[in-house]
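[job 0412] stage=complex_fold ligand=flavin-adenine dinucleotide status=START
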Amino acid sequence: MASHGNPTSFAATVFNYLIAGRGTAGLSALEAGLDRTSDPKVLTSDFAPSMWDDPDYDWVFKTTPQVHGNGRVVSHPPGKQLGGSSAINFDDWTHASRHDIDDSGEHGNSGWSWDELFPYFLKPETYAPPPPSTSAHVDITIILPSLHGTTGPIQDSFPPFYDNVYKAWEPIYKKLGLGPTGNPKGGRAAGAYMTLFTIEPKNASKIYARTAYWKPNAGRESLVVLTGAFATRVVFAREEGMLVAPGVIFTVDGETYTASASREVMLCAGALQLPQPLGTLRNWRSKFAPVTRHRGAV
Ligand SMILES: Cc1cc2nc3c(=O)[nH]c(=O)nc-3n(C[C@H](O)[C@H](O)[C@H](O)COP(=O)(O)OP(=O)(O)OC[C@H]3O[C@@H](n4cnc5c(N)ncnc54)[C@H](O)[C@@H]3O)c2cc1C
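[job 0412] stage=complex_fold status=DONE, emitting structure tokens
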């Protein structure tokens, strides 16, 4: 039975794949935050801002005072709970423009082109066409069903109701010449347009990584999540002269444990925190260079 585990049994198990950070990218994992899937603040889409700057839900990161921003300190709230930032984000379901994706490929990342990635944009999505009430307020002419997925675990929909601001902003931008210049889902995401939201159309609850990917797999015995577990360091070792990562050191309630993996260690702790458990990588590299293979993919 998939479970939230306990630190002692978690540390005694050798996992095939060990993932630190159970946010949008991770799955079976050590997660520093808690499981808040029955919390109305998480499940009610518009309540997201009520979680920001609250250390129970978010890491409460702040910038330094911004010299060119009149000394202002700006909040950056990455999610701290099962589902990570997808649990506290705005629910917009959209993606970048074709030229942004193609640029990544042109900078030497093979396989990164719009045409190669487009099928994967559709894979997670189950699209709900807009109800008639939406068509009265939103320009739906830019929506082409063929550019949407229909079988994925992420349900997305348009809200059935619009307040006056929502009704007004799209026409205003169009009037200013700042409307969409092509199809946002077809590779032209510039200009003002209404996105779909990752909201279940039947009951208007938020769909996020925890509900879409963990819940349907919760019965799998091989899937274990340990919440409240902070990964402090990837364990590096030498194996036949090569650098490998056989595990991760983590803490729960001030106690330190080591989790083990036979195949891969993956860090999915988000863009800002991912480097932290790698603190010792540079030392290990200099000790065991050249690094030709990582057992742990980091
Ligand atoms: C306020 C906000 C609004 C956003 N709005 C949108 C939107 O509307 N649409 C959209 O597409 N995108 C939006 N985004 C961006 C999107 O949510 C993120 O890009 C995406 O969730 C990042 O996924 P991730 O897996 O890389 O990281 P995260 O989802 O942040 O997951 C990282 C996880 O790792 C955990 N973690 C961190 N350090 C450790 C550690 N040392 N040990 C154990 N666990 C750790 C964290 O608690 C977290 O659960 C928004 C983001 C934010 C913050």
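DSSP finds nine helices and twelve strands in the chain.
[job 0412] exit 0
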